[in-house]
Amino acid sequence: MQVKETKAEGLSREIEIVVPASDLEARLQTRLFEIKDQVKIKGFRPGKIPMSHMRKTYGRSIMAEIVNQIINETPRSVIAERNERSAMRPEIQMTEDESEAEKVLRGEGDFRFTVAYETLPTFELKGTDGIKIERPVVEIDETEVEDQVKRIAESARTFQPKDGAAETGDRVTMDFIGKVDGEAFQGGSATDSNLVLGSGQFIPGFEDQLVGLSAGEDKTVEVTFPEDYGAEHLAGKPATFEVKVKSVAKPDEMELNDELAKKLGLESIDRLREIVRGQIESQFGQATRQKVKRQLLDALDADYSFELPSKLVEAEFQNIWAQVTRELEQSGKSFEDEDTTEEKARDEYRKLAERRVRLGLVLSEIGEKAGVTVSDEELQRAVIEQVRQYPGQEQQVYDYFRNTPDAVQSLRAPIFEEKVVDHLLATVDVTDKTVSKEELLKDDEDEAVAA
C-alpha cells in the first residue's frame, strides 16, 4: 500500500492511498479459500469447487466487500500511523470513472482513493496557578424554608362549599368562553374549571372581577392579554370571557403540622421542612456550580488561543443555530424583536461555537493528561436518567440506548466535562463569597448558554 500526502495546509490534510492490484488479489484469494468449504454450487461437491469457478461466481461481490473494508479501516490506521487525530470523520473520494472502478472489481487495477480530513490541533497545556475563582454562596434563611412550606401547604389546602359572594382566597368553580374580536379562540374555554381568587393563575385583572360573585351568577370579564404573552396571536389584545360561576368554596384553616405532612405522604412537618431545605440547597448549589464553572471556563478561554478545525466549528454552529431559530419560531419572534439582526446573531453564535470547540479541546486534553475517565456505571446511570424523563416510554428509550452505542457515548461527553471541571477546581484558588438569593440566581440562563 502506498500513502502520499497531497495537501497540508494548517489543520487540513489530504492523503492519497493506493492499494496495488496484487494486494487486492491476495486478499481475494484468501477470502475465496476461507469460504470454499461453505458455499454450495450445483454440480460440485462441497469443498471441491475449482478456484477459477469460485472467482467467476463470487469474485466481484467479494472484491466489493474488500474495497469497503479498506475504506472503513485504512484511513483510521493511516492517520494513527501519522500520529494525527482526525477532528471529524474523514471524507473519502474515489474515482468517478466507471471503467476504472470496474477494473478494481475485476481485480485488474489498483484501488486508488483520497482521504481528506482536519487534524485536531496540538497545544501546550498551561498551569492553573493564576486562576482565581469566587464561589457565590447563599445562607439559607429559615424564612425561605417556611415560605416554601407554606406554598406547599396552600397547594394541598382543602375547601368547603360556602353560600354568598366569593372573596379573595376562595375557590370558584366556573365555566367560561373566551373571545377576541367577538370570536372564540382555541384554548380559551373550559368547564368546571377551579380557580383560587388571588392566586394569579389567570390573566391579570381576571380574578379581581370575580370577587363578589355567588354561585349561579354570570359575568362578562374584560381583560387585555399581556404584551409578552406566550401566544403571539393573543399578545396585547383585548378579550372578553363569558363566565358562569357554578360554586364557591372557602379554604379550610391552614395549619403547618404533622397532619399536613401525612397528607403529603410524610411522617412529620419536620421531615417536610427537611426535604424543602434540601431542595433549596440543591437549587442554590446548581446555581453556584454554574457560576463557578462559568468563571473557570472564562479563565481557560482567555488562556488558550489556537487554530480550530473549521468543520468542527461549523457543526457546532449549526447545532446552536438550529436551536436558536427553533426557539424563535416557537415564540413567534424575530431577530428584530430581540434587538438584533440575523447577520449579527450569526456572528455572535459563531463566536460561541468557536468558544465551545476550543474549550472542549482544552478540557479533553486536560482530562486525558489527568487520567479522567467515565466508568460504565456512570454511563448506565446517565442512561437511566434519560429513561426516567419519558414516563410511559421507558422500554422504548432503554431499547434505543441499548441498540445505539453512539447514543450512549453522547452521554459520556457531559459527564467527562463535569469530572474535568471538578479536577480543575481542586487545583485553582477558590474563595467563598456570601451573596443574596437574587444575586445568585440572576442571569443563570445567559451563563448556561455561554458555558
TrEMBL record:
Q: In the Enzyme Commission scheme, what number(s) does this protein have?
A: 5.2.1.8
What is a single Pfam family found in this protein's UniProt entry?
Answer: FKBP_C
InterPro entries, sorted? PPIase_dom_sf (IPR046357), PPIase_FKBP_dom (IPR001179), Trig_fac (IPR005215), Trigger_fac_C (IPR008880), Trigger_fac_C_sf (IPR037041), Trigger_fac_ribosome-bd_bac (IPR008881), Trigger_fac_ribosome-bd_sf (IPR036611), Trigger_fact/SurA_dom_sf (IPR027304)
In its UniProt record, a GO molecular function of this protein is:
peptidyl-prolyl cis-trans isomerase activity
What subcellular locations does the record give? Cytoplasm
Highest taxon in the source lineage: Bacteria
**GO biological process annotation, one example:** protein unfolding
State the reactions this protein catalyses. Answer: [protein]-peptidylproline (omega=180) = [protein]-peptidylproline (omega=0)
Domain comment?
Consists of 3 domains; the N-terminus binds the ribosome, the middle domain has PPIase activity, while the C-terminus has intrinsic chaperone activity on its own.
Q: What does this protein do?
A: Involved in protein export. Acts as a chaperone by maintaining the newly synthesized protein in an open conformation. Functions as a peptidyl-prolyl cis-trans isomerase.
Q: What is this protein called?
A: Trigger factor
Per the UniProt record, the source organism is Aureimonas ureilytica
What is the organism lineage in this UniProt record?
Answer: Bacteria, Pseudomonadati, Pseudomonadota, Alphaproteobacteria, Hyphomicrobiales
In the UniProt record, the gene name given for this protein reads tig
